[in-house]
Write a structure and sequence with these properties.
alpha+beta; 479 residues; Arc Repressor Mutant, subunit A; binds magnesium ion; three-stranded antiparallel β-sheet; binds adenosine-5'-diphosphate; 15 helices; binds zinc ion
């Protein structure tokens, strides 16, 4: 029997507001534990929450970017559960009436564009953090994160493979980061995802029993976890077993999943409208204002890069995957208006050094104007492409600009014909055997002479000129 997998994702994104969702505590990361707290986010009796307007604006922005219908009236609800990182014993969330519903995003997959439905986008607040001490039998609680605004984006079960899921997740990530409403850091948990997966015989339309996977903090692990889970489902069903609806933890060390708890049902949470918060009204003025502030998103930028800069679609895809990379490209092209050459250098040297160093683009030691400077030196013929790579590496390591490096290390390309001719004549005199063999028809030896000349100039001779002069000089010796 052939199975098909069905996947739906629940994504939580921490919003980049300055203050928390319902109080004025700062959301700043890295403060002393429990210092960014107040009676509201600590859940003290008698305190009253007030919605952060910015958090709502960000939610609306995301809803527009995901083609959702925005509800004029939505409601905050209490999701009740007990855990030490949740001082109120309930999380303010939304239940029956979320801010936005019925949207979609078009996702670039290996088999073309695929439309993934967005069931809903709602607002909620984050919980605190428990810190477990490995050496002592104690745990600590830090409530700085308690009350930080989140949006949850719930997809329809529209994905059919782990690759689909990763592609969808990357699209959401790109949109959030482009909008500037989430920093997208998966390792630190400001962008996290629960993956729901089930399988069914191919051709069937019913939904199979699903499991929900947690604890995957990279795109790769989401894919790995789902792949493992799909295989586990298949093996269970083919072995005549039954699946139960449960929540499972992905274990990155083994690449497998472990049962965490049988899935709680919505009614376990005793959702009810939060009596401390008024129904949430989103008026048309706000929606229009957000619509107008919507920036160009990755897929539109990609199209424009192909159209206006004439770079290949693949390159445009890579360069627009991150907003900061796209901005880097555009800045460099503004100074050095040869998009193809900027793109080539970014796709190779720049990305290579960036990945190896793990530096953020904005703090890369080679900034757009530096790269543009290097490229124009090459274009002027001041240095060869080969030397260009050496200079780039030096720029990256030292932060110096290309002019300075070329000058200090004497790397200026030798294009002077007399200088090169003198050098070549000397090399031909020093290698009479090779000259004779060349003249007797072993013309491949030209490479040997080019090599000798480059060596003599420490790679600085203009290779084209070297080739021309060499051929000339060797021909002269024939007579
Ligand atoms: P729950 O009540 O368990 O949270 P929901 O119906 O709210 O379940 O769905 C949560 C997520 O799981 C959604 O993204 C949805 O698309 C996905 N989902 C629901 N049922 C299935 C299923 N049978 N297989 C895979 N994904 C599913
Ligand atoms: Zn507070
Ligand atoms: Mg649900």
């Amino acid at each position: 029997m052939e199975f098909e997998s069905v996947i739906g994702l629940e994504v939580h994104a921490q919003l980049l507001t300055e203050t928390k969702a319902f109080c004025s505590c700062t959301t700043k990361f890295g403060s002393a534990p429990n210092s960014n707290t107040c009676p509201i986010c600590l859940g003290m009796p008698g305190s009253l929450p007030v919605l952060n307007k910015r958090a709502l604006e960000f939610t609306v922005l995301m809803a527009i970017a995901c083609n959702c219908e925005i509800n004029e009236i939505s409601r905050f609800a209490r999701k009740n559960y007990y855990y030490p990182d949740l001082p109120k014993n309930y999380q303010i969330s939304q239940y029956e009436l979320p801010v936005a519903e019925h949207g979609w995003v078009d996702v670039d997959t290996s088999t073309g564009f695929k439309r993934i439905g967005i069931t809903r986008i709602h607002m909620e607040e984050d919980a605190g953090k428990l810190i477990h001490d490995d050496r002592k039998p104690v745990s600590y609680v830090d409530l700085n994160r308690t009350g930080v605004p989140l949006i949850e984006i719930v997809s329809e079960p529209d994905m059919r493979s782990p690759e689909d899921a990763a592609a969808y997740l990357k699209s959401l990530h790109s949109i959030l980061v482009y909008l500037g409403i989430c920093d997208g850091n998966m390792e630190e948990g400001s962008f996290r995802c629960d993956a729901n997966v089930s399988i069914r015989p191919k051709g069937q339309t019913y939904l199979g029993t699903k499991t929900e996977l947690k604890n995957m903090n990279s795109f790769k692990n989401v894919q790995k976890g789902l792949q493992h889970e799909i295989e586990r489902h298949e093996n269970t069903l083919l072995g005549g077993g039954n699946l139960i609806q449960e929540t499972r933890l992905f274990d990155p060390a083994s690449g497998t999943t472990i049962s965490m708890r049988s899935k709680e049902q919505a009614h376990d949470y005793r959702y009810f409208p939060d009596p401390d918060l008024l129904p949430l009204r989103v008026d048309l003025e706000l929606i229009e204002r957000m619509r107008k502030s919507l920036p160009e998103l990755a897929c539109q930028k990609k199209e424009r890069f192909v159209r206006d800069f004439g770079i290949p679609e693949y390159d445009a895809g890579v360069l627009t995957a991150e907003r900061s990379l796209a901005e880097y490209f555009e800045k460099a092209v503004e100074i050095f208006p040869n998009p193809k050459s900027v793109s080539n250098w970014m796709m190779t040297e720049f990305m290579r050094f960036l990945k190896a160093s793990g530096t953020a683009i904005v703090s890369a030691p080679v900034q757009p104007s530096d790269l543009a400077g290097l490229l124009s030196m090459m274009e002027r013929g001041a240095i060869s492409g080969k030397i260009g790579k050496v200079v780039f590496e030096e720029m990256w390591k030292t932060g110096k600009d290309s002019n300075q490096i070329v000058e200090e290390r004497g790397l200026v390309q030798v294009s002077d014909v007399t200088e090169i001719t003198d050098m070549i004549r000397k090399i031909l005199l020093d290698n009479p055997g090779e000259v004779t063999r060349y003249l007797n028809g072993k013309t491949q030896l030209i490479a040997f002479f080019v090599g000798q000349t480059m060596k003599a100039t420490r790679g600085r001779a203009n290779p084209q000129i070297v080739n021309e002069i060499l051929t000339d000089e060797l021909e002269k010796l024939r007579n």
